[in-house]
User: Fold this.
Amino acid sequence: MTAGHRADTRTPAPTDGPAPAEGVQRTSPPAVGSQRTSDPAEPEAAARRLLDLLAADAPAEELASQPARSRAAGVAAPDITWIEEATETALSVRRVLDQYRRREAELVALFDTAGDLAALRDLDAVLRAIVRRARTLLGSDVAYLTLNDPLARDTFMRVTDGSVSAAFQQLRLGMGEGLGGLVAQTARPYASTDYRTDHRYRHTGTIDDGVAEEGLRGILGVPLRLGKEIIGVLFAADRTPREFTPDAIALLADHAAVAIDSARLLDETRTALTRLEAANATARAHGEALHLASDAHDRLTRLVLRGAGIDDVAAEIAVLLRGGVAVHDTDGSELARSGTGPVTPSAETLAASRTDGRAIRADGVWTSAVLAGTESLGSIVLTGRADLPEADRRLFERAALVTAMLLLMRRSVAETEDRVRGELLDDLLVDPTTAPRRDSGGLTLRARRLGVDLSRPHAVAVLDSEPALRPRLAEETARRARRLGGLAGTRHGHVVLLAPSDEPGTLARTLAADLGRALGTPVTAGAAGPARGPEQLAALHAEALRCVTALHALDRTGEGADSAELGFIGVLLGDRADVGAYVERVLGPVLAYDSERGTDLLRTLRAYYDQGASLSRAKDALHVHVNTVVQRLDRVAQLLGPDWNTPARALEIHLALRVHRLTGKGAGPGR
Assistant:
């Protein structure tokens, strides 16, 4: 029942005197001439006595005894009737006055309760005050309060006053179970004169055992409202059967809900203040961390602007972060290291750092991609730090930005140097026949100034890839040239490398493999050399260009080779072809075997090819048994490999046999 409903049921205050009891009409003294007692003033005297008793707040029993006293005094029957009616009216007035006094006491108690609750600042204290006041207000043996648990979908005992049973104090009531569960479920007040025998409620063994242990009989429960939400139930109970009027306790429940709301708001305010203080502390710490990070960034930037190298920057970062630092190029090659052993970031970690733009920890190592926008310039690795606070992590990421700035500066310088080196390479590869007055000494001096010693053996490599990737190929080749101490540039749409090497074939294969991995696409490399001085470099370039063209024609795109490794094709393409070396490469094992053992394997092999690869005609030409031819060819297979008689190898071997004969070197045994 709400406060509004209770306001509608209040009885108006009396104005001219006590109101008559319901159904009782006010009567007048008997008219003159009617039958009366020997004392005509007795009715008026009885009326005065009733008024005096009301004024003295006499008990209702004393008021009700007046008709009996009048009978005992011998008052006539008509007067007795009048006195009885007046007594009923007096009793009605007494009931109204009692009701007003009771409501006044209740309101005073409720206002006192509201004042007490408003002064409390702790939710538990508020709940205890609610229960204690409820018990005092209703004069009950026990008062208790349960709160709803939305997650468990039940209501649990929170505060008790006057309870002696531990089991009762720990009760949980499912929605709809018992009187309290029904109040929590329906949000309506319920009362039971004797709960033990009241079968209107769903009894459970746990609830009944707890109520029986506490000895409760009469129970009243009212919902605790918070707006439209029912947050719990407030109870008053006696250990004897009792009838309850729910008005006062319902009003108290409303006040209690308001107090709970105030306490909750206060608790939320305190929580918000606590969080605000924590946020302020975090903000201060964050500000200090940013200040330290900014100072560290300035130190690193000044270091770079003073012209420090990547080694100096790596050492400074290691000091600032109290760990080991390694800086790597885009291809994973180490550029600098300080305070740590060799360490290389994994491709997966580096890719994650490039994607997130943050430092990533994996296998105890922190990795940060060094980026210029979306372009990767390399990576920086931090070791020796199992964990990084946010401030140190931001400092590490700022260090990656400074490293990117340094690498960009280095790249700018390198690009300028690469242009100078490319111009020198262009001059070195000019055909001497078209520039008869070329200053070879000046070219040698220019090369020496760039750290290139042309007096050492050098090879020329021509590299090719997909047209869209040639700018990247040129960049990677220039980086490789700086590492090798050579020159790189572009000429006639191809990338050219001049590098110290006396094994051009090995150089070509290495370049094709390494640059192909760096670009993620096939790179074809043709090489020629070696040569000393600037005079032969133009010829080497032309031969290397023909070699790379031949590799494409032979479906060997993505491989590297020099002219000598292309077999007879190389013989046909090379201007400086070494025929003897070609014969030795193809027939060397057979020539050596015949020379050491005096056998006729070479002559048998020549006869076999001259006779159209026919065993029977070859044995006639050699004047031996066919089994001898078979045995000798088996030995050839052991020396040259099992594929010696495939069409491609057979063509090479046959050509080498003819070149060997034409060069006049067939004087030995078996030749």
About this structure: Residues 1-28, 31-38, 666-671 have pLDDT under 50 and may be disordered. The first strand starts at residue 142 and ends at 149. The longest helix spans residues 246-305.
